[in-house]
Amino acid sequence: MYTFKDIQVSLSRSQLLSPQVISECENVCTDFQTALKMYNKFDHIWAKLEVTDTSLEKACAEKLHKISWLLYLSAKPFVFESCFGKPSLPEYAFLIVAVLHTVVTNANHSSDSPDIRIGAIESFKRQNESSPTSAKLSDFVLKMIVTNTFSSQN
User: Fold this and answer.
1) In this prediction, what percent of the chain has a pLDDT beyond 90?
2) Residue 58: left if φ>0, alpha if ψ -120 to 50, beta else—which one?
3) How far apart are CA 149 and CA 41, in angstroms?
4) Taking each helix axis from N to C terminus, what angle separates 19-49 and 119-127, rounded to the nearest 10 degrees?
5) pTM of the predicted model over 0.90
6) Taking the CB of residue 102, how many other CB atoms lie within 10 A of it?
7) N or C: which end of the chain has fewer CB within 10 A?
8) pLDDT tens-digit series, residues 59-83
9) Cα 115 to Cα 13: distance, rounded to the nearest angstrom
10) Beta strand residue intervals within the chain, DSSP E
């Protein structure tokens, strides 16, 4: 099976593609690889947050996952519009941190019967039974997400 890169190299050797088209193809490949890396990073962190449904018929965890990813995709152009050149992978990773932090800390986890259970929130509640404040929760979630984002295992 041929990859996109193999086809591109073959066409450029036979001089069927202009240098500008080859350059654009390389940019597309690079952008795709970056997007794939960022999605894998996002998905890895999401798994570490242990978001599960308490209501099977609503599929809230899956919806929250999709909404979080779409929020990341929507925020990217606005956050990086003033950047000169392409943002780096760490900059994309920090945006993932910000999006996941916002989603998790604002999820409906404080009601009596939430539709989702977030393992990170449950862990926080167990550790801070005496004085769980929203500021402490925010710091706890941020630390967990940052730790998982920039750990060397992923």
Assistant:
1) 10
2) alpha
3) 7
4) 40
5) no
6) 15
7) N
8) 888 888 999 999 999 988 888 887 7
9) 56
10) 51-53, 116-118
